[in-house]
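User: structure tokens for L-fucose:H+ symporter permease, please.
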Amino acid sequence: MDAKPKFTEQRYLVVLLFVTSLFFLWGVALTLGDVLNRHFQNVLHISKSRSGLVQFSMFGAYAVMGIPAGLFMKKFGYKKGVLLGLFLYAFGAFLFIPAADAESFNFFRIALFVLACGLATLETVAHPFVASLGDQRTSDQRINFSQSFNGLGGVIGPAIGSYFILKAGQAHSNDLVSVKHLYIVIGSVIALIGIAFSFVKIPSLADPHVIATDAYAVPPEDHVDKKLFQHKHFVFAAIAQLFNVAAQGGTWAYFINYGHDVMHFSDEKAGYFFSLSMVMMMIGRFAGTFLMRYIAPNKLLATFALCNVIMCVIVAQGFGWVSFIGLLFINFFFSIMFPTIFSLGLKNLGKQTQQASSFIVMGVVGGGIFPPLMGLIANHNVATSYYLPIICYVVIFLFGYTYKHFNKNMAA
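Assistant: Done. Predicted tokens:
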């Protein structure tokens, strides 16, 4: 057995690159939702707490679609799962046309929900798909690598949204025409990618979670027949993911508000800084992928979670640039959390891996719960609302810190 397992194999490269592009695509969609959050406040004249329903509509779709997407993937395979996700993504984008014509916030929420059902399907499929494209010992590295391009999508999303939707003085900056035009383009691009992917040939895959490759991954015989929810590391991963995305959803939803209210930026300028924060997240993911060669993923996760507790305390003080820089660094330390929790939660589950992926994806619903709660505080003071995500990072720290203990129990 090789001392240093390969990152992937030559025969998987084309598929890995294509699936990695999916991470980029849903990164664009999710961060555009945060731009829409602010735009709807301005154009549809809704409060911060009500605009948080944008995130509720998007992340709530994950709770609804997580299990159906997993069952679909299990029955029809990874490729058809990807095609279903891209179809729903494109269809939801095209629903922005009648939503904009009706100038209806609730109609927009329906369009976002359908679009996010596509994102939930892609996430459910893509993580185990990437994990299967090589040795399980390098699955953490592959998933973090692919998630780095999710970060790139997160950079592009708010940059596009700020320019085409929030740009001051633009002809359509105070209406919904620019939103409609932008999502027509997005829907068309996603549809074309779906057509292209339908022609990609998928090589036969030996799921590394089923055929273990090292002692770290081999479950003892008395644990082989354990039910999914008897795997403590999986259960804690699903909980940690819920709190992780809750922190993400709240932090991103009111980033532009923070820039406007605390730093007195224009919405457009705050949107560009949001894009910069996503650059920080992308750098963090590449750095995390490298550091995992030397530091156990669970230990790095716990360390980054503690750093974000500190960042949230600084941000909540509203100290001007000091606090705003702390807000930027939240995304740097947030960077590895989603893919690392996902990968750690899937380890050692064998044939239950795909089902487990569905439940962990459902945890993304946390991103729909937190923004309205933070919005209730942000209606009075947006800086103070950043105390709330500290709860989430404490849970993530405990998951990372105790993960080795779970592995010891499984290996006993």
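User: Anything notable?

Assistant: Residues 65 and 100 are 25 Å apart (CA to CA).
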